[in-house]
Amino acid sequence: MSSAPERLNLPFGSHLDRFLVCGLGSLGQHCVAELKEYGAIVSAIVDAPPKNWEIPELPQLLEEVFIGDCRLETVLKQARIHHCRTILLVTGNERVNTEAALAARALNPDVRLIVRSDKQNLNQLLGENLGNFAAFEPTQLSASAFALSALGVETLGYFNLEKRLLRVVKYQVHQGDRWCDRWRVHGLNSRSRRLLSHASAQLNPPLTPAAPQQFHQWEPDAVLQAGDTVVYVEVMNSLDMGNMLARPTHESEQRAKPSRWRKKKTWIAQLRHWGKQEKNFAQMLLRFWRSTEQYQTQRVAIVCGITLVAMWLLGIVLYRLSYPGAGLAEAFYAPIILLLGGYGDLFGSVDFANQPAPAAEMPGWLRLFSLMLTLAGTAFVGVLYALLTEALLTSRFMFFSNRDPVPQANHVVLVGLGRVGQGVAALLQELKQPLVAITIQAIDSSTLPRMPIIMGDLTHLLAKVNLETAKSIIVVTGDDIQNLELGLMAHTINPQSRLVIRTYDQHFSNSVTRLFPYAQVLCGSALSAEVFVAAAFGENIISLFHFNQQTVLVTEYSIEVGDTLNGHLLSEIAYGYGIVPVLYQRSRQEPPELMPSEDMRLYVGSRLIVLATSQSLQWVERGEMMPRQWQVRIEQALNSYAITEGVNQIALISGCNIGIAKKLMLSLPATLEQPLYEHQALRLVRKLNEIHVLAQAIKL
Questions:
Q1: Out of 6-20, 177-191, 331-345, which region has the weakest mean confidence (pLDDT)?
Q2: Which of 56, 169, 263, 608 sits at 20 to 30 Å (Cα–Cα) from 672?
Q3: CB atoms near residue 640 (< 10 Å)
Q4: What backbone phi and psi angles, to 5 degrees, belong to 474?
Q5: CATH node for 6-136
Q6: In angstroms, rounded to a whole number, what is the distance separating the alpha carbons of residues 88 and 136?
Q7: What is the DSSP track for 584-647?
Q8: How far apart are CA 346 and CA 245, in angstroms?
Q9: 98 touches 120 (CB < 8 A)
Q10: What pLDDT score was predicted for residue 335?
C-alpha cells in the first residue's frame, strides 16, 4: 500500500456533517448508498481502485475517494478526519479495521467509530476505553434475518428487551376467531400488544390483501373481518420461547421420531406417492430411479438384485425344459445352489431323474449358463459385503458423532455452514426448530452438536434430507449462482416449502425476486449496511427483522439536548416519523415500561426503543415530521363531570396547555385549533365520547 494517498477525480463538495467509509467492498458500497439516502456527504478510502462497482452509480455518490492505507495518519488527515462526524471501517480485514479505529481516535477524539469486527471481547473493551464506538459483524446481523424468513409467515421477528421476549406476528383472521366481526382494528392495541399493519381483504378482493409499506397505515375504526391480515408486536414470557412458533402436529411429531428403517420407508412412501400420481408404471419406475442418483452403491445393488432374479427364473425354465423328468423342486433349487457358488457340488451330487451325470450329457450352452449363474452369484456376494461394510462404518461414525437423525417432516433444510450458516443454525436451534444442514466442508464434532449434518456434493444431497416434507429451505453458501441453482432444485422437489436464498449483489437480488416471486431473496450486505449506517448516526441497533420487503430495525435512542425527539409526545413521534415505540424509560432511575402509553412525553435523559424502517430513521435524523392534517370539533358536554374530564383528556392526548383545554371546554361548541395526526385525533374523539362529550374528527 502506498503511504501517500492518491485522489481520484470525483466531484468535490463541502459539508460540516461528513462521513468517511474505509473499504469499498460489497458492504462498503451498500453503506455509501445508504448514507446518501440520509442526505449525507460521503468520502471513502480504499487500498486500490475498486474493480467491480456493485452499485454502478456509486462513483457519482462519493465526494472523494482516496487510494491508500486507512491505518496511516497521513491518509486519514488527507481525508479530513478532523471534520468527520463518523468513520465506518468496513474492510474485509478485522486487524486493519481495528488499527484504523485507533489511529482515527488519536486524530479526532470526537469522531464516532463504526467497526466491522467479530471479536466481541475486544470490541467491548475498545468501546469502554475509546468511547463513541460500535462494532458489528455482518454475518451475525444477516443470520437472524435468514433464520426468521424461514420460520413461516406467522413469525416475522423476535428480540429481547429488559429480559422479556417480544415477537412480531403476522396473522390472518379466520371466520370464528374471537376478533372476527367483533373487534375494531384499534382494539388490538393493549398493554402487551401494538398493531403494526392491517390489510383488509374486503378492499382487495379476490386477491391477497395488499400489505402497507409503513406503520400506522390502517383505519382505527374498521371492523376486523375474515381474510384480513394483521401484523403486530407482542410481549411474551421468556419461558414460552419454545412455544412461540407453530409447533408440528402430533402426527408430524410421530413422523419425526427416529426410525431404524427410515430410508427404506422413505423409498416405499415415495413409490406409493408416485404410484398415485403416475398412471404409467414405466414412468413411475423411471422417476424412482432418478431419485436414487446420489446413492450409487444402492443402484448397483438394485441392478444386481434384478439381474439375479431374472437369471434364477430363467434357470428354472431352462432346467425344467432340458430335464422334463426332473421334479419341479430340483429345477427350483438348482439355480439357487449355483448362485451361491455351488457349481461343483451340484454337478457332483445331484442326479436328474436317475439319468447319467449331468456334466457329461448336459448341453454345452446349459453348462456355460450354469457357470454364469455361479459367477453372477459370486459378484453379488461381493456387492452385499460392500453394502454391509458401508452400513457398519456409517453407523459407527454416527455413534461417535452423537448427532440426531435427519427429521422426517416439518423441518428446516439449511444448505451451507459457513459463518452465516452457523449463525442461522444456532438461532433455529435456540427457537427449537427441527433442522438438518448440508455442507461441502468438514465440520468439527463440537460445532453445532447433535444437529444432523450431511457432508458431500451439495447437488446430490438434497434427497438425503427428506426435502419433500420440509417446511423451509435456506440456501446460504458463498456462491450466488450456486445458491440460485440449489434453490430452484429444492423448489422443484418441494414447491410448497418456503425458499430463502442468500445473494451478495442487490441488483442480482432484485432480478431473482422479480423472476421467482416464491423465493425470499436477501442480500446480506444490504441488510448489514442498514445497521452500520443507522449506528453511524448515533443510534444503538438492538435487532432487525424483515417486514413487507423491507428491513425493520429495533433502535434505541437516548434523548439529549437538541435531539429531534426531545419534548414530543410518543404519539407525535409515532405518527410523525412512522415508528412504533415499544419501550419508554423517563430516566435511568425509573423502571422501563414496555408498550408505553402514547401520552408519555420525552425529556433529556429519557430512553426510547422503537421499531423503525431506514426511511423513518432518516426522518428522525433530519427532524422531518409528516404534516398533521386533523382537528377535533367538540359540540357538547352532557354534564359537569364531562367538562372536567374532557379538559384532562384534551390536554393529555393532544399535548396542549391545560389552560387552552379548559378554555375550549367552557366555550362549546368549539374546535381545538391544534392540528393532530389522524390516529391521535380519532383516539381523542373516542375518549371524549366515552365520558359523554360529543365530538368528531375533521380532516383539514
A1: 6-20
A2: 608
A3: 8
A4: -115, 125
A5: 3.40.50.720
A6: 11
A7: EESSTTSPPEES--TT-B--TT-EEEEEEEHHHHHHHHHT-PPPP-EEEEEEEESSHHHHHHHH
A8: 67
A9: no
A10: 74
Please state at what angle helix 570-577 crosses helix 614-622, rounded to 10 degrees. 120
pLDDT score for 267:
47
SS (H, E, C) 317-385: HHHHHHCCCCCHHHHHHHHHHHHCCCHHHHHHHCCCCCCCCHHHHCCHHHHHHHHHHHHHHHHHHHHHH
Check for a shared fold between 412-525 and 630-699. no
> Tens digit of pLDDT for each residue in 288-339?
555 555 455 566 677 777 777 887 787 777 777 777 766 677 777 677 777 7
Determine the average pLDDT of the residues in 363-369: 72
> What is 412-525's CATH superfamily?
NAD(P)-binding Rossmann-like Domain (3.40.50.720)
**Letter for the amino acid at 445?**
S
Q: Which CATH class is domain 150-243?
A: alpha beta
- Sorted by where each begins, the domain ranges of the chain are 6-136, 150-243, 262-291, 296-401, 412-525, 527-622, 630-699
Which class in CATH covers the domain with range 527-622? Answer: alpha beta
Residues in the chain: 700
In the block, residue with C-alpha cell 464516532: 112
Q: In what order do the strands lie in the sheet with 164-172?
A: 155-161, 164-172, 229-236, 193-199
In a 13 Å sphere around the CA of 458, the CA atoms on its Cβ side amount to 25
Among candidate residues 191, 201, 205, 194, the one with its CA nearest the CA of residue 222: 201
Give me the sign of the Cα torsion angle 336, 337, 341, 343.
negative
User: Cell numbers at residue 257, please?
Assistant: 421420531
Copy the grid coordinates of residue 317: 425354465
Q: What is the pLDDT of residues 674-699, one digit of tens each?
A: 999 999 999 999 999 999 999 999 99
State the residue for C-alpha cell 435511568. Answer: 588
